[in-house]
């Protein structure tokens, strides 16, 4: 009996030891199993190359929004997104982008000017078709055609513009002035400003794209009033800028009544000077609203059509979509790039983004209230006093900026500028035919 009890106790101890050993093995196996699960669920890592030419003044807003997108993509798709973002200035952004695309160093997403660039970039095969993306169905009816080509949506609109010239509301109100609708009325406004020792116009010609703004304003207004066939004739090598030589009347008036040191003042300095009240008017667009209000958050400015002659029907607001975001056809990260473009027009978060950029609503789901200068420009458009930004070869726009710098500096005459622009447009026609 005693031996039997000892034997039973021994068996019990052995069984317990085996059980403990087995339990220890299972416990040891758990961390390994957990590690395997962690390895399987490790996030996919994607670096998006984003090229935002001319948007360097909005770097903080975009970087913040991209960080929000990265959190969203990690949470919803377990994709860890990092950004390689570039913000080159307006002066050389276009040339840098074209070089990148031509050499195969392609950004996943890049900014383009909707009116100026979409036709050429699409024909060259650089723009992916985004028609099936959710954001496309949200675009406002008036916006969608401007970011489309060949019946395909190819970009997300950022800056929807209604512009002419900016004016200081306080100065105008203090002197009892109203935005002029004819050149004669503009001359009267200029005279009253001069009489009160106030500089009528801010000149900021350090960057050539700023004097270039006279071109779309002049051509757009005249083509939609007194010279309806100008662009068609130019595209057929049958026209000349001599046909619309009257555009120099407003240019001469501005140049003769502007601030000093025009070639020392660029866009940023110009925004600060305008915000400080150094001039009553600026031939510039509301895309500078953010920079102006950063310099003076109490600044009140308006937007009005730029008069070109004494026909009120030629004083029209330019309606356009400029900065837009496109996806490269050969992007290596199409899924994530598409997700980002859709997030740009997210039903909720995009309201904050567009407000922070001081941009107009472009989505049917945008609910934020437009800014006062937007509503003022829209009041002209609602009366039919507007035109769609004219389609002018980008090379002509580049050239006119430089030519008008030289014209202001008296290194080129009116006839010199006309001959130069005529030649540049003909060269653009020839290049388009070869293409």
CATH 4th-level superfamily of the largest domain: Periplasmic binding protein-like II
CATH class of the largest domain: Alpha Beta
User: What is the radius of gyration computed over CA atoms, rounded to a whole number of angstroms?
Assistant: 30 Å
Helix content: 40-55%
Function: Part of a binding-protein-dependent transport system for a sugar.
Subcellular location: Cell envelope
Keywords: Signal, Transport
Family: Belongs to the bacterial solute-binding protein 1 family.
Describe the structure in your own words.
It is globular, with a radius of gyration of 30 Å. The longest helix has about 40 residues, at about 1-40. It is built from 16 helices and 13 strands. A hairpin with a 2-residue loop joins strand 4 (about 150) and strand 5 (about 150-155). About 50% of the residues lie in helices and about 10% in strands. The strands form 4 sheets. The chain has a 5-stranded mixed sheet. The protein has a 3-stranded mixed sheet with strand order 7-11-13, with helices on both faces. The protein has a 3-stranded antiparallel sheet with strand order 9-8-10. The chain has 2 domains: about 45-160 and about 320-360, D-Maltodextrin-Binding Protein, domain 2 (3-Layer(aba) Sandwich); about 160-320 and about 375-435, D-Maltodextrin-Binding Protein, domain 2 (3-Layer(aba) Sandwich). The protein starts with a helix and ends with a helix. The chain has helices at about 1-40, 60-75, 90-105, 115-125, 170-175, 185-195, 215-225, 230-235, 245-255, 265-275, 290-295, 335-345, 350-355, 370-380, 395-410, 415-435, and strands at about 45-50, 80-85, 110-115, 150, 150-155, 155, 160-165, 165-170, 280, 300-305, 315-320, 325, 385-390. With about 425 residues, it is of the alpha/beta class.
